[in-house]
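Support case: user asked for a sample of complex input and structure output to validate their parser. Sending the pair below.
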Amino acid sequence: MTGPAIELHNVDKFFGDFQALKGITFSVDESERVVICGPSGSGKSTLIRCINKLEAHDGGTITVSGIRLDDDLRNLDAIRRDAGMVFQHFNLFPHLTVLENCALPQILSRGTKRDAAESTAADYLDRVRILDQANKYPGQISGGQKQRAAIARALCMEPKIMLFDEPTSALDPEMIQEVLDVMTELAKAGMTMIVVTHEMGFARMVADRVVYMEQGSIVEIATPKQFFEKPKDSRTRRFLSSIELAFTQSDRLSARTATGVTD
Amino acid sequence: MSEQTATYGFMEPQSPPKTARKPFFKLLFGDLLSATLSAVTVLLLLALIPAFNWAVLDAHWTVRSPSDCQSGGACWAFIGAKARLILFGLYPPSEQWRAVLVILLIVGMILVSLSPKLWNARLLAVWGVAVGAMLILMGGGVAGLPPVPTSKWGGLPVTLMLAVLSLGLAFPLAVLLALGRRGRLPIPRAVSIFTIELVRGLPLVGLLFVAAILLPLLLPPGWTIDKLGRTLAALTIFAAAYLAEVIRGGLQGLDEGQIEAAEALGIPYWKMIWHIVLPQAIQNVIPPLTNTAIVMVKNTSLVLIVGVFDMLSAARSATTDPAWPAPSTEAYLFVASIYFVICFGIAIYSRYLERGVAARTHG
């Protein structure tokens, strides 16, 4: 591997007059796990969505696996082949069974034969422990199962990078852990990951680096230890104490371990 | 799902009513509402007695000569005598087995296409072959079949072919119009809006006149398109405009996240439209699609005003036989019952499709 897996240089993004991203520069190495956090409206989802051009950036450069993201559709195809994405609202295809959700994209994007696609799908569904749900439709399974199916669907494309856009935000509390467990296993297997999340416990345990964003800019990039124990910027400290307040009312173990450190 | 069954299981013992069954008389006349309903029902039944007498008791089922039908009741014998004319129009009697085969072919193809599980490219190809076979069977001129010009085609095969072909050809056109209208490209968008609004703004009768009578005058000499073909084209474009708006409604109801997921997975645009977008858009709008399909089946009867011999025109011409005394009620009832069977069949089928969708989306 030459150079980082993902490299952003001076990236700007506008929605009309509103500037959602302001000169974002950072890079992610191969097999690195980066967690992006920040208050809502800070641009963290926009940032991750620019990496596979679900949103087109307006300035600066984005390079994924050495491929420059520009107007060339072949480059875009190559980048989307390398980068899998998991969405807040799962975005499973409701008219297809869980197995078909995982098999059909392989067939349509890569021309994989159906048999091979279904066996790959079954392998990954087994890895996220929902092979028993393979023949159900998304409307028939729980939120946690849906998100694990969505992760399996992305993995079926054999990406080098996984982008997670608030993967647990739409889940009932009791289902969050099963999804985080799958993501932790994926991290241990050496997947390059960018995760936008509010799960500070996950950030602490899994991330190599934590990126804190506010109002379209990166405020601080640090290791989890630095980030939670000695945040440099006053804005980071304010954010951490605000989520601590929110979480002290919650009895979730992961929340306590995450915020207890900042006391 | 298990939660639901558990709830139902819990409810079950409570569901039988504890009150004893009401006596029959009390059920019918126990309070003002039921008494009124019962009285109205009885009156309606009484009013139907003459109709029943006419249609069944006094009816003539078989007669030796048409004049036997003079007295009272319905003359169903007329239908028996004229069935071939109503069902096949002016199609040469010695060749009518071909028209029967076409009807069986259409009905058979519809039956094998009912299950959504079988909807794939192969079925589409089979339909292509079947339509080709229908046209050859009806038209002849090959394989020793005597040729029958389209001006001699008539009756039920024409009604069924116009309905199936106009809807079948309109559907892909409607999808393109709907996508064009929703899309960002200015020219397809303008063309779609113009076509949809122009066609929707014209009455079907006017469109049929343009296609059947005006178009041949406008085309340069030597250019001839068969009248039945022109009529089919008019019905198709009319159906397409309405279907396009129904499908557009389905597209608007689609979650943007579906397209984002497909894009992130690298699925190419047209494959995404075919496999991800359209199936969902269409299953969202089954009721209005059914509505349009039923309306279009009945709209095929309007072709009689441009001289195409569909089932209704054939029935009308059957009633003009002076040998039979005033048989138009029977003829129209007969034709109406065939239309009803077709349209009610479509309605039942759409409910079957909707149940399938509901089972998938709600467990």
